[in-house]
Amino acid sequence: MEIERARKRIAQLSEQLNQHNYQYYVLAQPLISDYEYDMMMEELIKLEKQFPELILSSSPSQRVGGEITKNFQSFPHRYPMLSLGNSYSRAEIADFINRIKKSIGNKVEFVCELKYDGVAVSLHYKNGLLKQALTRGDGTKGDDITTNVKTIRSIPLQLTGNYLEDFEIRGEIYYPRKSFEKLNASRAEEGQALFANPRNAAAGTIKLQDSAEVARRNLDCWLYYLVAENDDLPFETHYESLQKAKKWGFRISNDIALCVNENEIFEFINNWEKARHKLPFDIDGIVVKVNSFAQQRQLGFTAKSPRWAIAYKYKAEEAKTRLLGVDFQVGRTGAVTPVANLKPVLLAGTTVKRATLHNADFIAQLDLHENDLVTIEKGGEIIPKITAVDLSERDANSKTISFLTHCPECGTKLTRQEGEAAWYCPNSDGCPPQIKGKIEHFISRKAMNIESLGEGKIALLFDQGLIKNAADLYSLKYDDLFGLEKIIETADENNPGNIITRKVSFKEKTSENILKSLDESRNVPFHRVLFALGIRFVGETVAKKLADAFLSIDGIKNASFEQLIAVDEIGEKIAASVQQYFSDPNHLILIQKLKDAGLQFEQENKISADGPLKGKSFVISGVFSVSRETIKKLIESNGGKNISSLSNKTDYLVAGDNMGPAKKQKAEKLGIPIISEEDLHKLLE
Ligand code: IVH
Prior knowledge:
685 residues; alpha+beta; 6-stranded antiparallel sheet; 24 helices; globular
């Protein structure tokens, strides 16, 4: 395609994708299917690969991330980011209202909003484009998190309608509760440290160096405060400014109330005190603001906070109950998670019977004993946590709760790796929950995407002896499936630790769907098959990187440790895990069976297709006139390969500004030509 046609198509795709993004993530009213959206995004990314010079700062492709931020640079805030005065009692709110009325008279209107519990962000927009996103920092200067913020789907990269030319809008980036639970569950399985609550998870995520990882993490954002030069603001009130901002594409809550007196404000506070537990995200209070901008100016600021706003904070809800016992659950990777069984108690509107105990260290920190009287709290998490033990109520001869030494499912001795919090059952191919978990992962949407099959049906097939591993799925016949049914017990997704019973049955249509879907999965590309194998630390992205670098399962199996770590983003931990996987003969048998079943174990197209850089490998280092990601894309789209470290197999070192002296020395020692960004362009000619 010639460049002018590409420019037009890129503009058209960007506009459509931005619009669909808004429909889906802001309005929650999608107009097209995920598939159609993915196809458009794929086309856009392909065109941008071909013409990297046409990549716009507002391109929807930025949503998938890819750029790495080594250091988050600090920038001054144009308007200081202040905090709010806090209050914990109705009396303090009444004082606030009286103070205001005394100062500016009785005719005053208030806006009540939810106080989102996340990380404050300030977004600067100029001519409708997101220019910069800063954290609060110390209030006068904050860190530039623009690249990561661009991956948050509900934050518009390009505004629509009659927007202001130059302004900032502030809001709160947060981690939705469900996504937070999933994140922690998978971290627990992988033995990584857990986030204490969604706020910490949001704060940790927004400062990740790899924006592609941020993109995968489902952060979201509410916006609540528009700031610009007074003379530039064409609105009289805060409420009006938010309604206008909503029209430009921002995600602004509908849970806002205009109140004219104390009673109306208290009603808002009281309603949300109960209703907050049903929200899919955390709030820690409500915010009361004076609505009129003129009155806000009259009231002004103290050194720390505006006089025209105050926060009312809710207290964390707590309850005391007895510990009845501890269960140990074994997950897909063999990680053993302790769960406390509690005497049922009412907390924040629900009856709580279980609480997570995370890992052995957590139990030791609490010094938990049998039958202890414990305080449970519903903070950020859906599953309550034990925050304290009442020692005065402890039975004199009660025993300490100790962690298991052997797997509760298969009896194998548990192991723990140095530096990891979780204990594991190492019997990965013989321990029932691990086998079932692996098969569940294998059939999941992002892996082999087998329809009509889920946790319950996998459990039933396993219990019937019909499947012992993923390869057995491909030997299933209609007669094996049709008519099978059983009442089974599974974990309650909304209340981990709780068990629910349900009936699982294979009817005619289901059985047909499963077999059809299994058949179709023979076309699933290699990188997803690799992901489906469930090799520890090999997630979607790593699987893609490995597939691109080695092109087949045998290529990966035969790669040396050095070759593995030479691949971009593959570190020692992943390389060791990959080698360990292939050293197990059972895994080689499984792969052979899957090969025999007709699955793809080779990359279809080599990404390094024809081009002037075909067969050449590059290391890039330093700062360039465009982003490093753009340089990498340029190399790849012309047939070259990017590698992360210099070796005697490297053909060129592309040096930008500020390249470290060590790299230069190493390249010189190995006799690798050092070329500039300009030289690279010459190679393309
Ligand atoms: S207004 C000048 N509105 O709470 C004050 N803040 O404890 C501008 N927050 O710094 C802030 N929800 O990070 C405002 N609806 C809301 C809010 C909100 C959460 C955060 C924000 C602020 C902190 C103060």
